[in-house]
Specification:
Layout: H1 2-5, H2 15-32, E1 36-41, H3 47-53, E2 62-67, E3 73-76, H4 83-89, E4 94-97, H5 101-112, E5 116-120, H6 127-134, E6 139-143, H7 145-148, H8 154-177, H9 183-196
Parallel strand pairs: 1-5, 3-4, 5-6
Antiparallel strand pairs: 1-2, 2-3
Helix pairs in contact: 8-9
C-alpha cells in the first residue's frame, strides 16, 4: 500500500536539483580524497538519503554509496521486486540486495579496489553498524552531516514553505470544528487529510 502512495513530483523536486546535490558530494569526495561517500538511512534517519537521491525507506536499513564520479549505488535489504519502483522515485540506477550493508560495502570496496571511504556521521551510526564498519580493513573518514547538506536551496525552501502552509491550513480547520479528542485520533485524522491534500 505505501509503495503505491509514494511518487516523485518532479515539478517540486526537479532532477536537476538532485544533480547539483550529487555534484556537491562528488566534489566533497575529491576534497576528502575518498573513493566514495556513504550515507546511512533508516526509517528514523532518512533525511540525508532523501536529500541526496530521493530514496525514502520504510522499515529498512540502507547505505547510499556515492563513488567519486558516479551515480549513487543503493545497498538495501528490500525485496528485488520493489527495485523497479525504487528506480522510478529516485536517482538510483544500481541497487544491490544487502541484508548487511557493512558486509556489502566491504565487498563493493574489494571489487573496486577502494581503500578510503567517507561515512557521513560515522560516530552517529547505530552501534552494531558502527562496530561492524570500524572492524573492517578499509580506512573510514568521518564526514560531518553539514558537509553534504549545506544551506537550504531555493527548491528546499519552497517545499518546506508549502508543507508548513498545508499543515497550518489542515490543523486550523480541524481544531476549529472538533471538540476534545485523543492525540492519536487527532494525529490520524490530520495525516489522512494531509495525504489527500492537493
Amino acid at each position: 500500500m505505501k509503495r503505491g502512495l509514494v511518487s516523485w513530483e518532479k515539478n517540486e523536486l526537479p532532477p536537476e536539483e538532485l544533480g547539483s546535490r550529487l555534484a556537491a558530494v562528488h566534489a566533497l569526495a575529491r576534497k576528502e580524497n575518498v573513493d566514495a561517500v556513504v550515507v546511512y538511512s533508516d526509517v528514523w534517519r532518512s533525511n540525508d538519503a532523501r536529500y541526496l537521491s530521493n530514496y525514502m525507506p520504510y522499515w529498512n536499513r540502507a547505505f547510499i554509496v556515492t563513488p567519486r564520479e558516479e551515480q549513487p549505488i543503493l545497498l538495501c535489504a528490500l525485496s528485488p521486486r520493489v527495485y523497479p519502483w525504487i528506480k522510478t522515485v529516485t536517482v538510483h540506477e544500481t541497487i544491490i540486495a544487502s541484508p548487511s550493508p557493512p558486509a556489502t560495502l566491504f565487498k563493493l570496496c574489494a571489487e573496486r579496489g577502494w581503500k578510503r571511504v567517507g561515512v557521513v556521521d560515522l560516530e552517529g551510526l547505530p552501534a552494531d553498524l558502527h562496530t561492524e564498519l570500524t572492524a573492517g580493513k578499509i580506512e573510514l573518514v568521518d564526514i560531518p552531516r553539514n558537509e553534504i547538506r549545506p544551506a537550504p536551496s531555493e527548491v528546499e525552501v519552497r517545499m518546506h514553505a508549502r508543507a508548513a502552509r498545508m499543515a497550518r491550513e489542515v490543523l486550523e480547520k480541524d481544531l476549529s470544528t472538533r471538540g476534545a479528542q485523543t492525540d492519536h485520533e487527532l494525529t490520524g485524522r490530520l495525516e489522512r487529510q494531509l495525504r489527500h491534500a492537493p
